[in-house]
């Protein structure tokens, strides 16, 4: 059962992640359509996922939320690499294979971005997308992010070196979008 609602989007709710959600996360992270777009080259067993929950999801310096629709989990969205000094955060997100294409990622990311600027006082939010993940790039571009550059062959994933596309959005640009 997902944790309590933290933020409401138009079609999704963003909830805290609880240990009961690890089965969903483990199952979906094992799907090639998810792990290949995020660069996770290895599946996670329960022990590794529990460690991820305890050390990463439960970390007070990051925000990891379960994306839910009608109380059913459909993905995750997070701010990691949060820097209080420079008032910025890096987005991460994924949606379960069977739920992709429904607009859930755009709603969840937009809801978290709004929270980051409004409630956390971020000046800048950034995200990286592996080459070949056009749907994720579209999510960011639809929300007003600027494609800022490419780190060529920066990551070895899915059997080869891949480019990483960097996107950024400034607080004043988000206010213009609203």
From TrEMBL:
Entries under CDD domains matching the protein: NAT_SF
GO molecular-function terms, A-Z: phospholipid:diacylglycerol acyltransferase activity; protein N-terminal-serine acetyltransferase activity; protein-N-terminal-alanine acetyltransferase activity
Domain N-acetyltransferase: 12-168
TM stretches of this protein: none
Keyword set includes Transmembrane: no
SUPFAM superfamilies xrefs: Acyl-CoA N-acyltransferases (Nat)
EC number(s) reported in the record: 2.3.1.158
GO CC entries: cytoplasm
UniProt keyword terms in alphabetical order: Acyltransferase, Transferase
PROSITE patterns with a match to the protein in the record: GNAT (PS51186)
Gene3D superfamilies listed in its UniProt record: 3.40.630.30
Keyword Transferase: yes
Protein name, UniProt field: GCN5-related N-acetyltransferase
């Amino acid at each position: 059962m997902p944790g309590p609602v933290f933020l409401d989007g138009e079609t999704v709710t963003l909830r805290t992640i609880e240990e009961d959600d690890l089965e969903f996360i483990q199952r979906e992270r094992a799907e090639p359509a998810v792990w290949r777009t995020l660069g996770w080259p290895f599946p996670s067993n329960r022990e590794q996922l529990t460690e991820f929950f305890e050390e990463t999801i439960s970390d007070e310096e990051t925000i990891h939320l379960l994306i839910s629709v009608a109380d059913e989990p459909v993905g995750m969205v997070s701010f990691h690499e949060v820097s209080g000094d420079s008032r910025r955060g890096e987005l991460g997100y994924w949606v379960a294979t069977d739920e992709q294409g429904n607009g859930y990622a755009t709603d969840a990311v937009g809801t978290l971005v709004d929270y980051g600027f409004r409630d956390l006082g971020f000046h800048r939010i950034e995200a990286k997308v592996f080459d070949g993940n056009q749907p994720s790039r579209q999510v960011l571009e639809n929300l007003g992010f600027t494609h800022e550059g490419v780190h060529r062959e920066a990551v070895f994933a899915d059997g080869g070196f891949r480019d990483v596309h960097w996107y950024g959005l400034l607080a004043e640009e988000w206010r213009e979008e609203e």
